[in-house]
Amino acid sequence: MESTPVAASPAKTIHALLGRRDAPTDGVVDFCDFLGDALAARGICLETVQVPWVDHGWPRALRSLREASEDWRGEWVLLQYSALAWSRRGFPVGAIRVARILQRNGAHVGVIFHDAVGFEIRRLYDRARLRIQYMIMRNLYDRSERSILTIPPESVDWLPPNPSRVTFIPIGANIPEFLGDRSASDRAVPTIAVFSITGGESGNTEIQDIAFAARRARERLGAVRLEVFGRGAENARARLERALEGSGVALRLRGILPAEEITRTLAGSDVLLFVRGLAASRRGTFVSGIACGLPIIGYGEAGVDPAIDAAGVQLVPWHDIERLAETLTQVLADSNLRRQLHKRSVIAQTEYYSWDKIAGRYIEVLGLGGAAR
Length: 373
Hints:
By secondary structure, the chain is α/β, with parallel strands linked by helices. It folds into two domains: 12-171 and 355-365, Glycogen Phosphorylase B (Rossmann fold); 191-353, Rossmann fold (3-Layer(aba) Sandwich), CATH 3.40.50.2000. It has helices at 27-40, 53-56, 58-68, 93-104, 124-143, 200-221, 237-244, 259-267, 284-291, 306-310, 321-333, 335-353, 355-365; strands at 12-18, 44-50, 76-81, 108-113, 146-149, 166-168, 191-195, 225-229, 250-253, 271-278, 296-299, 313-316. It has a six-stranded parallel β-sheet with strand order 2-1-3-4-5-6, sandwiched between helices. Strand 11 (296-299), helix 10 (306-310) and strand 12 (313-316) form a beta-alpha-beta unit. The chain is globular and about 65 Å long. The relative contact order is 0.12.
């Protein structure tokens, strides 16, 4: 699939290499589509190329890539890395084989690390798998001419000391932005948005955190409305309803929505509650709140990510549900504080997370300056 250029006759082409697609939604594909549109406005074509190893097997897929990339000598190829895009069980050795082919055919190899750090891990098997993933990512970094991280390099353990070929560029939201004035947005019923819930045991923890915070807000403020939507929301319906039973919290739960409807839902909310791990510039569901000018309450630590620090984000220590609930209640109760946080999110969206700004950073990092605006 190729993004449709906005500018006529793009002077330069970048090839974005995709592995296995995720379902029912794929944030990396959406990332390439939005970045492609922003680059096209600057006279550069981002061509997305699938390596169909799932459908055809690795030998045939690599043979096809070898033939196609013979025409890419001297051009940039950006390998879109996540562990499960290049393996069935999280051992992405295939990504190294892809990078070797690109090097041999004379392409400029770049890697965008969409999953540069691991998640909370309990089992010994998962820790061993993560260690192998880190070794593979270090190998890809060593082979690349440019490596792009969607989180600050200081957060990444597997990088060498003082890495010279790595750049931090946040992702943008995969929805239309909405940065309208929220000065008149006070609602009779405060509304909390939750965008997506993780599956498995992590999802159970998220549901308990959401319910605890919403219950506390309801006790302190009276009526409270909870808008839950996105991936995993429908599967969490019964568990979330049980967790909120008798609380008086008004719940509206929907599944995957069109991008425009996501924007409308976030723009119609007072805050985004983000408990899907630590707040991070690589999380599209988190960045969507900034793209809609929302205050965001979540887990994390200030001073780790300058883009997050600039936004209207209130962070509390990991799994400190008391602090989470208190912070949520405070923001919902204080309209002046909400407006201050809104202004910060608008600034951060403009300075760090807008697709035009992100496209400009890629052009700078890849040395493609001089493209038309």
